[in-house]
Amino acid sequence: MASTVVKVKESLLGFDSDAGSEARRSFQKHCVVDESTGQEFLSEDAFVDAIAPAGEDFRKIKRSQYAILFDVADRGRTDRVTLEDWLVFNDLLQKPDADYEIAFRVFADPRTGQVDVDTFKETIGANKSRQSVSFDWDGHWAALYLGDKKHRHPMTYPQFAQMLRALQGERVRQAFLHYDKNGDGYIEPADFQTIIQETAAHKLSDHLLASLPSLCNISPGSKISYANVRAFLNVIRDMDLVELIIRNAVGRSPDGKITRHDFLDEAARVTRFSHFTPMEADILFHFASLDQPAGRLGLMDFARVLDPSWHSSGSRFTDTGGISTVAEKAVAGTTTVLGSLLVSLHHFGLGAIAGAFGAFMVYPIDLVKTRMQNQRQSRVGQLLYKNSIDCFSKVLRNEGARGLYSGVLPQLIGVAPEKAIKLTVNDLVRGKFTEPTTGRIPLWAELLAGGSAGGAQVIFTNPLEIVKIRLQVQGEAAKAAAREGEEFTKRSAMWIVRHLGLMGLYKGASACLLRDVPFSAIYFPAYSHLKRDMFGESPAKKLGVLQLLTAAAIAGMPAAYLTTPCDVIKTRLQVEARKGDTSYNGLRDAAVKVFREEGARAFFKGGVARVVRSSPQFGFTLAAYEVLQNALPMPGHETAPHAPTPSQSIPGLQEARTPLPYLRSRNALQIILDLDLGFSRLKKPDGAATGHTWLPKFRSAAPAAPVTAAEEPRE
């Protein structure tokens, strides 16, 4: 229930996306309530739902393994995470070194803020998978970090983090020695596959894991040497750098494909301290070219090595030359174009429905506005309505509720192209003049964009407006004819279209332009500035429906009222003159005759009704569009809150679009799983202190930040 209330509140009022607010919203969304105390908390399952994104690919890290982080967040060891615990945990995730600090706090003693070596070893043993090779914590390598048996010392945070950094390489070395039974420096391909699956399966693609035994084919013989193993580890350890080099090299290539020679050339340009050996390049190209032995590889070929989530149905990499055949490229291009078209049609459909809803809700006001604007004072008895309220009541009394919606169908039909063209042109022109780095746009460009949008929409709206207006005034024309004993025949929309012809449908188009160009030139800049300056919209703050509705309504007021004179002239030109009515021949003639016969006030007839109609219409339209976007997302295009965005096909390493707190929690899990893939829900060794994780209430009480330490050298 609390989650529903929060969602409704955010939808209506908007929200700030700062870390604290985001954490509170996430807690409210997933929390459960203790019925006996009324306390809100996260159970282990609820915590996993909150921290593990629904759209994440859990092929490499089991979703259940995120429960390790529950032990870090549960400071009181009560098997529940309170709001305070959750806020502290999220504050930890904001730290730049959160991934290593979380791993440290899993093992650190809460009383000393250090990792006791014996407890650490016992915890590793309790969580060790049955298949993994036992690690020698009493050997020479461990003594360098922990001290030998006689001089063991607890590890501080910086020491522990650096030990974890080098641990995977040592695990592989010890496992190699375990399988090298005769000590000749070679192991069987199956043993190599077992070693990598036990130490790095959570980081590598299924394709790469399944192909590991083929490493023996890069050199004569049927076994794998330790040099092969170290070269392979260096490649996967520097995978981010490898991807950068590949993307840069692919970007330089005319056909988007590269050779081993191209890779090493680009590596020489990019690197200064890390140099790739010939064997490392051979290993990279070997695994990338298993299904493409031609020697020239594209980005999609390397994806099966670089992308841990790669599988045959897709990858986060986009192709810049890796699709092998022209036919495949044609199919891929067609799919992309079709997908873009479907997305555009989806947006168009939602905009049409939302626009039709907004127009329908205010249509009676629009009808009253039209009747008032068409009311003439040129002869006695012409004044049917005293004011807008009198007009509304008389239409309802004489023509019924259906009379208030006379001509509504053409209006609804016209909304779709009108909204689509107006919004598209405005966005297109604004995009041309918007500064890419700051997002700023000069006022004159905003006015130009809005005016261009208003001008473009006239192509569709003028024919529909003239049909709508003639249908709207038929009721009063019928009453006037009956009063004078004349026969009156109601006309359908199709009859009006056939009667007017193509040229007639654009009668009053100049007046329509005179109205719509300034209206949009006023409305769009006003709406944009109101959202930003009045309601504080920013990348960190999303506005709610009520705020958008209010901004749209306020922006529509001056735009609607100031353009009322143009709307009056347009209405007079487009309405079919009855017997005895003044007829008009163009803008100037209409303006002069209206002023001479009815005075200056006539130009603002229906102005209030126009404001009352336009303001809520835009509000209803935007509110409906927001609701429709959430209720009817594009099938297959639902974006999970933390789902990674596909990389773009440009040279250079692609940064993740996923929020940093999630990336850090995922990285922390990878670091912990480097110890052993058997970790899931942490199992404490017998006799371990209750509350072995240490998560202080305030960041200032946290252990010292790690100091710079030398990395483990590449062998």
UniProtKB/TrEMBL annotation:
Renumbered ranges of Solcar repeats: 342-432, 441-533, 543-631
Single biological process term from Gene Ontology: malate-aspartate shuttle
Any GO CC annotation of this UniProt entry: mitochondrial inner membrane
Gene3D superfamilies: EF-hand, Mitochondrial carrier domain
Sequence ranges assigned to domain EF-hand in this UniProt record: 167-202
Entry keyword set: Calcium, Membrane, Mitochondrion, Mitochondrion inner membrane, Repeat, Transmembrane, Transmembrane helix, Transport
Lipid bilayer topology: Multi-pass membrane protein
Superkingdom of origin: Eukaryota
Main subcellular localisation: mitochondrion
InterPro entries assigned to the protein according to its UniProt record, in alphabetical order: EF-hand-dom_pair, EF_Hand_1_Ca_BS, EF_hand_dom, MCP, MCP_dom_sf, MCP_transmembrane, Mito_Solute_Carrier
Cell compartment(s), UniProt: Mitochondrion inner membrane
Gene Ontology MF term list: calcium ion binding; L-aspartate transmembrane transporter activity; L-glutamate transmembrane transporter activity
Role this protein plays: Calcium-dependent mitochondrial aspartate and glutamate carrier. Transport of glutamate in mitochondria is required for mitochondrial transamination reactions and ornithine synthesis. Plays also a role in malate-aspartate NADH shuttle, which is critical for growth on acetate and fatty acids.
Oligomer status and interactors: Homodimer (via N-terminus).
Family statement: Belongs to the mitochondrial carrier (TC 2.A.29) family.
The protein's name in its UniProt record: Mitochondrial aspartate-glutamate transporter AGC1
